[in-house]
Amino acid sequence: MKKLESSLTNMVLVLVGVAVIMGGVLAYINHLTSGPIEQQKQKALTEGIKEVMNNKTAVIARQDTVKQKDEKGKELTFVVYEVKDQADKPLGTAVQSTTLGFGGDLKVLVGFDAEGTILGYTLLEHAETPGLGAKADKWFQRDGKGNIIGKNPATAPLDVKPAKGGKGDVDAITASTITTRAFLKAVNQAHDQLKLQKEE
């Protein structure tokens, strides 16, 4: 068998061939994994809604996706879930809100009762610094230092304490004020969206 000549044309053809084959392999793997990934996201959302509504029988009765622009013109996407129990009794509303944190998007799911009081929350996605901003998943829970459960942003929007430059009463995550502000902004925006839904 004759050895291939080492020319620019041959090298380009080999590289293109390898790229095409690898592209095909990656597309096939993506096709195989997209279904299970979507199922996992749905399962995480279902469990998240049960968690934020503090009800193990919570089910989504209705879902709306709302797009709107913030004060800087950036498009925001909210997903609003009306939630009922298995006996068809309304439990409240869960709102998915996304803001920009320290490391990237911070996606939060917040559960509200009929009056707009926070029942619970969970982080669906974040890219915050491990050990610092990533503490947001526990920090603002009922037993956390920055507890927001039971508060109603309608009475006073959530903000950090004056010592951290805010006007509120929420303890910021130690060494993660940017993450704290982003998290509280996401919760406040979720509450604003809840109010808009009720006005319609």
Structure notes:
The protein is α+β, with helices and mostly antiparallel strands. It is 36% helix and 24% strand. It has helices spanning 8-52, 136-139, 177-199; strands at residues 59-69, 75-84, 90-100, 105-112, 118-125. A hairpin with a 4-residue loop joins β3 and β4 (105-112). The radius of gyration is 23 Å and the shape is globular. The model has no long low-confidence stretch (mean pLDDT 87).
Q: Summary?
A:
Helices cover 36% and strands 24% of the residues.
Supply database-style keywords.
single chain; alpha+beta; 5-stranded antiparallel sheet; 5 strands; 24% strand
Structural class: alpha+beta
Q: What is the helix content?
A: 25-40%
Which runs of at least 5 residues are low in confidence (pLDDT < 50)? none
Number of helical segments? 3
Distance, first to last CA: 76 Å
SSE layout:
Blueprint: H1 8-52, E1 59-69, E2 75-84, E3 90-100, E4 105-112, E5 118-125, H2 136-139, H3 177-199
Antiparallel strand pairs: 1-2, 2-3, 3-4, 4-5
